[in-house]
Amino acid sequence: MKRLRFICILLFLPVWVGTIFSQTPQAFCGEPMGNQKKPVGIDLSLWRKISTQPNDSIGSTCFNVGVFSTMNNLAGVGLNVLGSIVQHDVRGLQVAGFWNLTGQSMRGVQLAGITNVNGNDLAGVAVSGLVGINGNRTRGVQVSGLVNINGDDNDGLSIGGLMNLSGNQTRGVQFSGMSNITGLNFKGVSVSGLLNIAGGDATGVQVSGLSNITVGRMCGVQIAPANIAVRAKGVQIGLFNYYKERLDGIQLGLVNANPSTRVQLVLYGGNSTKLNVAARFKNRLFYTMLGTGMPYLKFSNKFSGSLFYRAGLEVPLYKRLYVSGDMGYQHIETFKNENMGYPARLYSLQGRINLEYRLTDRMGLFVTGGYGWDRYYSRSANYDKGVLVEGGIILFKY
């Protein structure tokens, strides 16, 4: 009989305690939040409608423990096995195994296994296994395994395993595995595995594995295989760099382009690789070239060829006569000639001086003199070296 009475007390203890705290809330919750005049104390909840706190309460909960809970306001600590829904504001700590939903603002720390959703602002730290969503602004730190989404601004540090998305501005530091997207302006450091996009201006550093795109003005440094900006002030470092209107700075890349860049076809022969074709990306003074040539060995040998890159500077001499100089790197493959005793592959470092005469606005002729060092990849030694003599034709608009 005593044992049965003890079991009954344990079963009804949570309800009894919750009722006491509901009747004497000021001693435990302190002052209510905002316009909420009646804090309700402690909520012990098994499910949304199975709890010590009425679902239609207009007060604030200072301590909540449950499986799945629904509250008006939370001013304190909420701990739930599955999830919790707070219809208005949270001030404190909100922890759930799967989800935390806050109708308005969150001030404090949110931890969830799957998702944290705030209808208005987040000022603090939110950590979720998959998705973090804020309807308005984030001022603190958001860490999600998949995606962070901010409907307006992001002022802090946002780390997403896949993507960070801000509808308006980003002022802090973002890291993501795939992309960082800012609807308007970005200020700070943005690092992603694939793509950084700023719909307005970008100030700071953008680093990505594929491309940095700034629709407005970029002030700072862009580092990626492809960098794109409307107006740029700073440095673009990549394989392909492009600005649409103006650049106050430098571009360091294999191909540097803008709307005035002319893409030309270069056909020439020489004593290194015998027949060559290249694309020349020519700006007002500077140019770069990407091309291929064949054969590297004699015509009587089996097939051999090369890929090359050159970058240089061109200045006018007299009317249609121009002089240019460039440095180049060439990768050489001998393919099946390796069986004949030739190295399987080589690389060549080359310097050239070119004299070019423009016959028309779409055609020119040139001759080249230079020097090259063909070297082994496997050891620090020259395979061959000597003078370069070349000549050819340039097509398309200057």
Give the helices and strands, then pairings.
Blueprint: H1 2-23, H2 26-29, E1 41-47, E2 50-51, E3 60-71, E4 73-86, E5 90-96, E6 99-102, E7 106-112, E8 115-118, E9 122-128, E10 131-134, E11 141-144, E12 147-150, E13 157-160, E14 163-166, E15 173-176, E16 179-182, E17 186-192, E18 195-198, E19 202-208, E20 211-223, E21 226-257, E22 262-270, E23 275-282, E24 286-294, E25 305-318, E26 321-333, E27 345-360, E28 363-376, E29 382-395
Parallel strand pairs: 1-3, 3-4, 4-5, 4-6, 5-7, 6-8, 7-9, 8-10, 9-11, 10-12, 11-13, 12-14, 13-15, 14-16, 15-17, 16-18, 17-19, 18-20, 19-20, 20-21
Antiparallel strand pairs: 1-2, 22-23, 22-29, 23-24, 24-25, 25-26, 26-27, 27-28, 28-29
Explain the overall architecture.
- The protein is mainly β.
- It has three domains: 15-114, no CATH class; 137-259, no CATH class; 262-395, Porin (Beta Barrel), CATH 2.40.160.20.
- Helices cover 7% and strands 63% of the residues.
- It has helices spanning 2-23, 26-29, and strands spanning 41-47, 50-51, 60-71, 73-86, 90-96, 99-102, 106-112, 115-118, 122-128, 131-134, 141-144, 147-150, 157-160, 163-166, 173-176, 179-182, 186-192, 195-198, 202-208, 211-223, 226-257, 262-270, 275-282, 286-294, 305-318, 321-333, 345-360, 363-376, 382-395.
- The strands form two sheets. The protein has a 17-stranded parallel beta barrel. Strands 22-23-24-25-26-27-28-29 form an eight-stranded antiparallel barrel.
- The protein starts with a helix and ends with a strand.
